[in-house]
Design a protein that fits this description.
6 copies of one chain form a homohexamer. By secondary structure, the first copy, chain A, is of the alpha+beta class. The first copy, chain A, is 21% helix and 31% strand. In chain A, the strands form 3 sheets. The first copy, chain A, has a 5-stranded antiparallel sheet, with no helix packed on it. The longest helix of chain A is centred in the N-terminal third of the chain and has 19 residues. Chains A, B, C, D, E, F: Keywords: Apoplast, Disulfide bond, Glycoprotein, Manganese, Metal-binding, Receptor, Secreted, Signal.
């Protein structure tokens, strides 16, 4: 008897709270439009445990010119992160490889090295903060800072990267400067690079102009 | 003459500002999808004074096993709160009744007692902050903290609860632990409760496993 | 034996977490400087249950020209609210009394009426949203909106106000316009009030100029 | 050979990042519903340079009763600002003109004067902060504060206004109080203005009641 | 000649920006008081690369009753994280070990498993979201949710945890309920546990009452 | 008589609210430590109108290698902006001058051109958004994006820049890459620039290594 009453009250309570708890999380409906705060939420009824799990954080193929691979679990790959202000990526760098200069606009990056040796750093107008990292080390790259990671050890290096945004972006400096159709003269003028240098890298990274 | 000009300018001003003022508030369209920042806004033209008023904050029926009733005015019941970071609930606890241990993920609760006597508190790993409250007292339960409220006086107790979120949720510990289908052994292992205790409460709160 | 180990681990865990939990709340040290996010935190060791409780939410004295009284529990009166984004006030309005036009810059107000009858509303350039409220009703005044409350019933009216800020401020229009030393001509020019009206209210509210 | 590999990796990287970078900006789709965080984003494929540019920040027509003109570039006129927390307006005030008392709920205003002389100020219950400004001066009006701007020089005055919100709104005090249908007696009671003054301004600003 | 001019201008630019860039990061001065937004910043002149690096993310000692170890890099251990909204912990669980039910008030947790097998989940009033995870899997626990992690494989399991806060706290349910001096009857009443069960666990976790 | 009562009540009201209104603004005490949310507030009693006004937004000296001058009014120059999320700068570019590639980590920039012609743009990994601007035009550069401004007209160009942060910083790409002591080989490796190019620009911008 008592139990029925309790369950009844709990149902009453959970009626109002189960709707309220829609906002306890908001799994992205990637087919719907984005908003400044993230994607629309999938209906609660359609959400399962699988929405909160991401598979495939395994070693990427580093058999390329960078000798590096980046596997990202951002909201577009892992919709359960929507609205939660966090995401991650796996970084594999073969010997002599590197992740060149880049920024994440508006997201801080926290690097956890698990194998090998990585020399990493970020740049400000007045200082460089850089360090050679070994397994057991963490390094933080504050939001929006230009930074790099190089495998300076022997053999492969692996790290996990986490970000203070579900959608941190990744803006590689060379892609920004040399993969587009801005006139080479304009790029030279606004970077102080030699025109020939700009043209050479435009050819390499697919830019025109 | 002058008046016409003024009105004209004011219409000009109000043309840009009346659209801008859509964001002065954003009454929820509960039939549309939710987003991480809340529901889509109802069109301004459809909004009336009634959207900003909630009726029914009256004494709930405490004739149940808890001897308690919670009436909530969260965004799902009161769409005018959408995006405004505030909501409320009315709490009625009959003699000997209580609201058992629960949390509101990410919302602070501020309790205003108006009748009777309530002993309330919240728990941290190293301290308990609890107090017996009488009409004229307020108590704050910082965001995400496990807390409880007990009627420790004679006769009924009534309080108003307000929250720093339009959708604070309410996670009752017993519902979390005992109303689901997690195996009883797993619940026992991760709570240090005796298996028999888990099974007993699973039976009471409708859980299986 | 086992227990010792457990307690040891828990102490280890609670060592890192008890420091971490400093941020679970941040009771204001009102003698220290304020910051844009609120006051500095009192040391955890000095915090007791009393920091989370406020006394004195009782009927204020309405024996004045307003026939009204406002008792506030903002961070400056209730330091436990610091950083938690919520506060409250108690409103008592005698028959024929009112709280005149005012704003709370950057805070939403949620009104819970508990006795009597209050007619309340807020103003936008294109609409008025107003309503006569009775016990059991709530009304929300979105952030920064000019609003008012009038006792339109018989006998006293009482309401609880809650705010989406620990420090909502309260800017009474008459105090803004008429209690200062701005030249009356300037006030008249920027309000379209008659100069005589401005001078009359300056005299009433203590302004000069 | 190498180049192909590089381009391939860059395509791989840019595949994940180009989607991630949807959130680097979120140009408003003004035909879609608004949300508490702003409008839905236009699809990335439809976005061009024109979405980030606004034309028409030219002198407005001040041939009206105010001798003033306000040209706004808020998100509703300049959709590229959506979600970015910034907007602007151009202010032209002819000799003897003024922008009367008003607030922007929840947005700070920063004024840059470029021509003429403007006396501006904002009001708190206990102080007035006002100043006569000349080209080369800036003045900040903290969020939600009642403020005004008057041309106190010879000839025209021009200023640029910027706001800490993509949609700051603009609530002119006279429009709030006198353009609606609130009973004149209620307005008089809640402002302490004489009833005749209220009725006179209601007539001027189009209000009834 | 030219270079001098350039350097001069750059110094001019960097004069304003190097001060501005104090806020590009804010390394905690842990000896100064905390605020709701974090600790005060160390002076820029005292900051070195070491402030952005944390050492010691190595396997903890799991030779305890939990068969588990948690090594945290929160702002109190890693001051460079201050104000950046991110932190991390390393989790080692020996065979049959587990991290019992706990919450992080206001922080989302993202788990990256690197060795072994972990069964993890979080609880809502109406559902359980749980999963058995293997290396290469990620799982997200939305903010404030009660959750657990169990080593359900053979041999040791290791995971990295990251949080959407520099100071996520960690509230272990058993410590909250059983390590304090709340009367056992009160704990029983507000949890529906049997009094004997409460007393047994109070004895185990060091609580009195 | 009545007036005295009113003034008394207003003093009562203004007693609680004048303290509350400390947070209506928070003028920076630049001699005190910074926090993640900004500087500590100056005491209210010391604040005057001058704290909200900045002088000196006049044409800078463009007689340098850039043919450009930037005059900033950030919180470090204009303490009244503290905590308000907005700031400004004046940009003067002589014929053929430019502001080279740079970012503002975490701040959006809104440009208002008032004289001459400026070609400006920002870069993403997949697109360039650029435009030639004339007086009356605005352009927005979303937060953290790499961008540039060039005088492409005849004679001087002037623009006002506003930012969605009181302290936006300004990270000039050449200063980041070439004014420090990172080994030239490392810079070359992480930018794909030729080593000779790196060395040439290091010599120009004062870097070593």
């Amino acid at each position: 008897m008592k139990i029925i009453h309790i369950v009844f009250l709990f149902f009453f309570l959970s009626f109002t709270t189960s709707q309220a708890s829609v906002n306890d999380f908001c799994v992205a409906d990637l087919k719907a439009p984005d908003t400044p705060s993230g994607y629309q939420c999938k209906p609660l009824a359609n959400i399962t445990s699988d929405d909160f799990v991401f598979h495939g954080f395994v070693a990427g193929n580093t058999n390329n010119s960078f000798n590096a691979a980046l596997t990202s679990a951002f909201v577009t790959e892992f919709p359960g992160l929507n609205g939660l202000g966090i995401s991650a990526a796996r970084l594999d760098i073969a010997e002599n490889g590197s992740i060149p200069m880049h920024t994440h606009p508006g997201a801080t990056e926290l690097l956890i090295i698990v194998q090998g040796e990585i020399t990493a750093g970020f740049l400000t107008p007045t200082s460089v903060y850089s360090k050679t990292l070994k397994p057991g080390d963490l390094m933080v790259f504050p939001q929006g800072m230009l930074h790099f990671q190089i495998n300076t050890g022997k053999g492969k290096a692996t790290a996990f990267l986490t970000f203070s945004s579900a959608n941190p972006g990744a803006q590689l400096l060379d892609l920004l400067l040399f993969s587009n159709n801005l006139p080479s003269e304009l790029v030279a003028q606004t970077t102080f690079l030699d025109l020939a240098q700009v043209q050479k890298l435009k050819a390499r990274f697919g830019g025109r102009g």
